[in-house]
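Hypothesis: this fold can be encoded by more than one sequence.
Test: take the structure tokens below, design a sequence, compare later.
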């Protein structure tokens, strides 16, 4: 608990002003943002707090991609498809045509992201934390304070892209934001993903489906028995990520606030205990597959589903989702279902979250407008990833990795355009030019009604 204040002594910091665009956060959105900005010729720096790129797919050990298709075709294209296809080609046990719930080998994915960002010409700064944000009265960020082994330093660019997941850059610069349930402030639960090694592949693949959607999954009896108190509920997504290795996105950790380091620290301790509990339970109920298994790895990042939502020039809503709405300024499409994980009572009783939305049919999707990436009141800042401008319900759809990859590419490209044509003003970017460049790079952007009327797009 903070109960006092401390005034810093005046100190002059070294200033690095050699970059046009600085991207903070090296998860999926940050990687494609940095690659896209550098591809456009902007001198780009990607700042990452850990020692690897990829965020939840690597350091977080999420074991599978959410669907890349709308059940008919791939909708997350451009750099998103490049990342997805490059990794899939290195995983021989995955079918070449697979697009949905494709497993992730986290070590291979780290190298894929390294190649994407460095290959585009962006600079990467690992093991570096955002320590502060300086801004002027006109809503311009004038410098970021970064902390690493070189000490506290200031970095200045023309445009900044916030891909921290929690909206740290924008929030610390004074942007408006929402967080959690509108009435209670409650956040969706987190999950600490893990990998079990030395699993018998044949027994795993030919045994009962562990996922809770299978009414015959042993997870239901295990939880109901009360014999495994370390396992909180029946949530147990799992995928074979490599020979004899199964990744798990299992269980929930309630009350975790990713903007509170004490909360996250407690969750990491609890999550590691939960991983051991799952291993022991699986060894008991499915010994042929898991009897000799070991906890190979636990995530160095907590799987956070919800924190700050930065308020932008447009707030995407669940009503937009239900209407399959298109926008003249949309920068990608999204077809993932609204996936809001409920309170402890709801999850443990099987009641769900109360926010379930009907799944889309084949070929259906909605647009995400560029205005969701432009924070109100800030001139030279973009956001991409989990912290874009949205309501709480639709956040459950737009927070996942495929759409974050697509949003990141758009944000990086827009940042470079703002540098080149708009004096750093991200609100003044020519959206027509942005959409044209996204299409040229393979992005999936069906023609808007205005474009159809003009007859310029087929």
């Amino acid at each position: 608990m903070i109960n006092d204040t401390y005034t810093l002594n005046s100190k002059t910091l070294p200033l690095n002003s050699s970059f046009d665009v600085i991207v903070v956060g090296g998860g999926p959105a940050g990687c494609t943002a940095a690659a896209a900005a550098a591809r456009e010729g902007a001198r780009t720096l990607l700042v990452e707090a850990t020692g690897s790129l990829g965020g939840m797919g690597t350091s977080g050990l999420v074991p599978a991609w959410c669907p890349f298709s709308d059940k008919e075709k791939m909708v997350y294209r451009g750099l998103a498809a490049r990342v997805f296809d490059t990794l899939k080609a290195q995983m021989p046990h995955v079918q070449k045509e697979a697009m949905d719930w494709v497993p992730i080998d986290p070590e291979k994915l780290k190298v894929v992201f390294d190649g994407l960002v460095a290959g585009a010409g962006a600079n990467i700064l690992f093991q570096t934390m955002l320590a502060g944000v300086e801004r002027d009265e006109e809503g311009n960020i004038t410098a970021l304070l970064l902390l690493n082994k070189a000490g506290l330093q200031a970095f200045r660019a023309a445009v900044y892209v916030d891909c921290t997941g929690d909206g740290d850059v924008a929030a610390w610069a004074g942007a408006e934001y929402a967080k959690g349930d509108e009435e209670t402030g409650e956040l969706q639960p987190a999950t600490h993903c893990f990998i079990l090694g030395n699993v018998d592949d044949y027994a795993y693949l030919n045994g009962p489906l562990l996922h809770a959607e299978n009414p015959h999954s042993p997870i239901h009896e295990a939880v109901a028995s009360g014999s495994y108190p370390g396992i909180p509920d029946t949530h147990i997504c799992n995928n074979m990520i490599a020979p004899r290795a199964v990744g798990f996105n299992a269980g929930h950790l309630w009350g975790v606030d990713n903007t509170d380091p004490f909360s996250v620290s407690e969750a990491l301790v609890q999550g590691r205990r939960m991983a051991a509990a799952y291993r022991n339970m699986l060894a008991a109920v499915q010994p042929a597959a898991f009897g000799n298994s070991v906890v190979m790895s636990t995530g160095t990042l907590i799987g956070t589903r919800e924190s700050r939502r930065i308020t932008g020039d447009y707030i995407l809503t669940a009503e937009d989702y239900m209407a399959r709405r298109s926008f003249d300024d949309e920068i990608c499409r999204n077809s993932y279902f609204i996936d809001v994980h409920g309170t402890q009572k709801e999850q443990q009783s099987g009641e769900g979250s109360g926010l379930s939305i009907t799944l889309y049919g084949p070929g259906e999707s909605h647009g995400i407008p560029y205005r969701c990436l432009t924070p109100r009141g800030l001139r030279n800042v973009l956001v991409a990833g989990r912290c874009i401008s949205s309501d709480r319900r639709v956040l459950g759809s737009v927070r996942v990795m495929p759409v974050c990859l697509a949003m990141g590419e758009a944000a990086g490209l827009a940042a470079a355009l703002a540098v080149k044509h708009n004096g750093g003003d991200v609100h003044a970017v020519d959206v027509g030019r942005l959409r044209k460049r996204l299409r040229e790079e393979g992005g999936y952007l069906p023609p808007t009604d205005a474009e159809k009327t003009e007859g310029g797009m087929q």
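Residues 194-298 form one domain. The CA atoms of residues 62 and 220 lie 22 Å apart.
Hypothesis status: open.
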